[in-house]
Amino acid sequence: MKKILLMGNPNVGKSAIFSRLTGVRTIISNYSGTTIEFTEGYINYKGKRDKVIDVPGAYTLEPTNEAEKVAVEMLNKGCDIVVCVMDATNLERGLNLTLQLLKRRIPTIIVLNIWDEAKHKGIKIDIEKMEKYLNVPVVSTCGITGEGIKKFVDRLSEANISQIEYEEKAKWTKIGEIIENVQVVTHRHHTFLETLGDLSIHHIIGIPIAIIILYISFTLIRLIGEGLIGYVTEPLFEKYWMIVLERISYFLHPGSFLHSIFIGQLIEGGIDFGQSFGILSTGLFIPIAAVLPYIFAFYLVLSLLEDCGYLPRLGVMVDNIFHKLGLHGLSIVPMLLGLGCNVPGALGTRILESKRERFIAGTLMAIAVPCMAQIAMIAGLIGPYGAKGFGLVFGTLFIVLIITGVVMNMTLKGESPEIFIEIPPYRIPYWKAILKKLWMRLYGFLKEALPYVMLGVFIVNILYTIGAIELAGRIFSPIVTKVFGLPKEAIGALIVGFLRKDVAVGMLAPLGLSFKQLVISCVVLAMYFPCIATFTVLAKELGFVDMLKSVLIMIISTLIVGGLLNLIL
Amino acid sequence: MNIPLSELKNGEGGIITEISGGGRLITKLQNLGIVQGKKILKISGQFMRGPITVRIGNTTVAIGFGMAQKIILEVAKK
What we know:
By secondary structure, chain A is of the alpha/beta class.
């Protein structure tokens, strides 16, 4: 079995091609650095079966960030064929890496992807001449629609070692020479999308555009999320699942141990999906009825933003603000990913160059960026109080984000590098790609969340039964009651928050908290510690010592903010 | 006339004559196609020494202000 590496610049469509070749679903977006880890799959052709690896994008083989490091390591481990994927609309930039790859003397084949857009933009590339110059086969494709993929697979076995020679100093002259000879660009007018692209990074017009896009995005998320809960998931649970549960409840006898595990406590003689806290009642209701609609809404909107190419532009617009936090504008991408789930968000910090930036970004996310599951539960809990509750919780978290960032930027050693990113052209999102990505993310959520939420609910019941929560409540009651002004039962939520934040927020519902206590407990739950999944990933990304520092910052800032809220509100 | 990219007005362009920085900066810029002798067009610059967006060939790149100060261009005299 041969090992085939898919390599190329960021955002040239390696993952789209990989997906076409292997049938393995991957996340594809329109910005650099979507793939931060390699993905493996298999391709069957001409009766053979070979391994294909989708490598993170790199501009160079002299790595400048974590993703590029991964790419070079993959190459150094050795492989049988390199598939060098190039953006046909950006030949010149791509040749820098291509020449470096060809010099490695590994059998190579070149894929000129995004061929359709190049044609559209009036870029003509003479493929035969290019093959002569580079001394390896060249195939044109469109990874998103699948055009040209078959031809590419047919020619895969023709991959050969290039004999190209050039002096390192004269590399750019060589690139210029190749471009001059193989590419013809016919002049044409700015398209509407290009004009829009330039306007959305304009120093004045870009600001209202950013505000409008963000406002529409979050309004859409709220409307879709609320709508789905109110009209679809809640009615389904109340009308149908309730009947099933009532049967089970009758069968298990209320008050028995099994009943309290599976159905939970009866509230005023009936099952309450929010408060009963059985595995089959609240344990299913939280992930499917309360959280899934928001996850769906969030990832639908995020996918559209990702695929059209707006995110890097937003990064440019917010660069100044992020600089105050010791980050640059592109950090908005992992932060937004973190808003969906902190785990991909933490992984996404790899697109940042320095360790310092990754520490700041990871810590800020864990403290002040609640995930969508948690947000959905907070919305359900505090929603009845209207915009005031929302504003208080998220306003506080936003202020915490800014202050913690500024303080870290002032106290941590070193300086953070400036923004330096490629801005992709705007593209009309391809609906099939959007649906595929949305499905992957929803499936990923259900696979992760369902068992953990049910486990969480199970553990809650066990902890109550053996009296562990009461004990913990007594030990930590000075902090919980004196500093935060919460009832000591709230400690149960803080314990379960280690496992799943959405379940933890759900545990606040039966406590009968006042408005002030609800706000404080939501903020504290968001800040005090990441959930176990995020913690594991962050610890791996930051290393043990930095993770310890990060946790200290989390705990201290939670004590300060929770205490202050208790005093002010 | 030679001026740094940071002082260019929106919509103006020039030819890169020099990158006045260390080897690391030169390599970093070079990876995105910003090399001596290339034509570069400024598209926008954000307030308060924010990032500057340029077009070079078919690529659009956002560059931090500090880096833009080190990219020296030759522009036509007005």
